[in-house]
Design a protein that fits this description.
Layout lengths: L1 E2 L4 E6 L5 E8 L2 E4 L3 E2 L18 E6 L2 E8 L11 E6 L7 E7 L6 E6 L2 E6 L4 E5 L6 E2 L4 E3 L12 E2 L5 H4 L4 E2 L7 E4 L3 E4 L4 E4 L14 H8 L6 H11 L8 H35 L16 H15 L4 H17 L6 H13 L3 H9 L7 H9 L6 H12 L4 H10 L3 H10 L8 H10 L3 H19 L11 H11 L11
Parallel strand pairs: 9-14
Antiparallel strand pairs: 1-2, 2-3, 3-4, 3-5, 6-7, 7-8, 8-9, 10-11, 11-12, 13-14, 15-16, 17-18, 18-19
Length: 500
Amino acid sequence: MYCPESSVILLSTTVLGNVLQPFYFKGGAMSKLSKFEIELPAAPKASKLSLSERDIAMATIYGQLYVLYLRHHSRTSNSTGAEVVLYHLPREGPCKKLHILKLYRTGKFALNVVDNLVVVHHQDTETSLIFDIKLKGEFDGTVTLHQLVLPARSIQPYQIPMAGPTAVTSQFPVPCKLYSSSWIVFQPDIIISASEGYLWNLQVKLEPIVNLLPDKGKLMDFLLQRKDCKMVILSVCSQMLSEPDRGSLGVIATVFDKLNNEYKKYLEAEQSYNMALEIGQSRNNPPPKRPIRTQAVIDQSDIYTHVLSVFTEKKEGPHKFTIAVLMEYIRSLNQFQIAVQHYLYELVIKTLVQHNLFYMLHQFLQYHVLSDSKPLACLLLSLESIYPPAHQLSLDMLKRLSTANDEIVEVLLSKHQVLAALRFIRGIGGHDSISARKFLDAAKQTEDEMLFYTIFRFFEQRNQRLRGNPSFNPGEHCEEHVMYFKQVFGDQALMKPTMS
């Protein structure tokens, strides 16, 4: 038996055929791996071949090569049915029996490996059993016993289209006979129907599994190991926050922790890679291998975009639950020492403001539950009209961030907080020297005509106070803004000079 994926050939030796000798091929050379013995279910009565090729398979599962042995039910033993025994076959060292998959069935079986899952097809019941050796099993000191991950399911029915002339093909397609005795199975995921002349690749659909595994923690453990898991996981997260599938905060916390555990592992791998890259460049070492970002890496932007922002917009649950969920995700990020992105804090603040929970907002800021950042400070400044203390809270935050006054103004203008920027600059007494054009540019970009009017009028009044004339000097380069003002509000709206 040959496994092209791992370039290993397996030979059956001895009279019983249960001593297997693997050989590994690489670059035209062959190396002999450790031979091992397959434990037969019962001592054979006669010295004859007792191990059939159809009961053995080789496959790579989670990057490791395994020999899978289908051990049939023995009437003489106390077994509860057939089992699949997994022998780990390393390149170096002895082969070890590590896993046993309990089938609790007898009859004819066939094996496939799909997306690191062992799929056991059972002909009698016309169902397939799915096992995941990464999930926690029952360890007896030597091997790990695994139960079914999901209830036994049948392969999705397939309709065979009728071939032939147009007149004939208009007939209804014929349903394919599933789990037929004419099926031949090849590793890792191929099924051939010899009688119908079809070859299929077996795939596992993740969406239906969501409803088959009620334990959200176990479901996450399962999904995080799958290749195309991202959107399904995000869908599960959304479901557990909404009726009728709303989970408890404990369950939600467990899910967030499992996601952030994977996220943290990737961040650490990326950090190690960057460090190795820097060291390697300085020493002319070959570049290290960059960590692969799998779909199991679900970062803050994913959760924010697909789960939390949608959840807060729905406003279908009690606001205390909404805030608790947001804080639970932030708690989980902090637990794994992942820097929380400002947009998550902004979501918390906006939710608190929507429900007039200013006291809680003040506490969160006072006790630094929400970490300081410039975008957060800008958001607080914008809340001044509905919560006056927010102005001082934001300025305190900017000062803690050692932000220069000019930079604070730039940050506010970039966030279209033009009035907040003007208030800030007036608060520090710098409003007589600021550039009128910069503020008028920012006001115009907001496309808010009344805001533009307010800012324009402020600078007219400043000009009048400083120079005795509301007009702008040519050096201020505000001609286009004067024209725009006239266009929108008319010449008569311009401020007339007043005698002091």
